[in-house]
Amino acid sequence: MENLGRREFIVGALSSLFFAFPKRAEAARRKGVRVKLPPFPFQETVITGKKKGKRILVVGGIHGNEPGAYKAADILRTVEVEEGELIVAPRSNFLSVLANVRGYNGDMNRKFATLSPKDPDYPYVEKLKELIRELRPDVVLSLHDGYGFHILNPRFWGQCIVIDEENFNGYPLGKIAREVARAVNEKVSRRRWKIPVFNTRTFSPDTKHPEQRKSLTYYCLSKCNIPAFCLEASKQLPTLETKVRFHLLMMKEFFKIYGIKIKPDFDTLISETGKFLERKRIYTARIRINGREVEISSGKTFKVPKGSTFEFVAFHGSEGTNVISRDVNMNWRNFLVRRRISFEVKDDFKRIFNVRLIVTS
Ligand SMILES: [Zn+2]
Description:
alpha/beta; Aminopeptidase; 8-stranded mixed beta sheet; 10 helices; 18 strands; binds zinc ion
């Protein structure tokens, strides 16, 4: 793919300036093709049980290159709840999920203490905080795929349950995490895959991890008085399916402790993880060029004259389907293309097809 670099494009933010100068706006428009891409939605699902009970929030995708975490959260969106309430935010950092990087705009899990409204992640961090403040879950689970195996090297974050303190405000975080770990480890024979509990002692003055005071779990505890845990599978597990299964195994035990019952149950979800991940889907993208819509289901090149508008309107396929372009700043969703650009229609980390736009005079 040809990378034309950023200088070929006029930043979308400049367009507001052009509104003040209609003639200049018109002149700029004639220099290229205006591209509009849909925003990255903040996905949240609330599933309420027939029987009242505790409320659990599962957060996935704060880090975009941790598919075990966000796919496990995504699977939970398909269940029914028999008792209690389940809230799932599977792709908290959707742009980074599509780009398949930890944090396209920096580490989102360091943005929960303070954040400039100018930060491109700001609306998503705020959404998550709002969800927690307004729905006040009884517990928050933040899902990650960490590096390595914590049991082999305590400096690694993979394959463990992270707590911020042994006890916090009467919440026995350590006791709960160990109960989950014990139940999971009974089913694990390989030593390196076993799940220990990692206490970062975030509230202690001599903590080795003061940076954790900017994390989601610390926000839940310190600002909302809500217990929160980090569930870490390992990036080094052999398959995506194994990573997802470990998340489901850990969540099964948390759900049991909090008395939240889902249908199908976790054992069924765990046995059908492969089927869920390999589900065949038909993907389409609807594109609108100067008001006329076309639907495509495979790669295509469009030659479009200057002065036109080229929009991605909608997608079919999965909840993880959206479009990015590596030729521009990926935060831009409205900008002018002067010569050419290549887009990737993606299902999470997976590229489905490319769409190329060539500007003609
Ligand atoms: Zn992570």
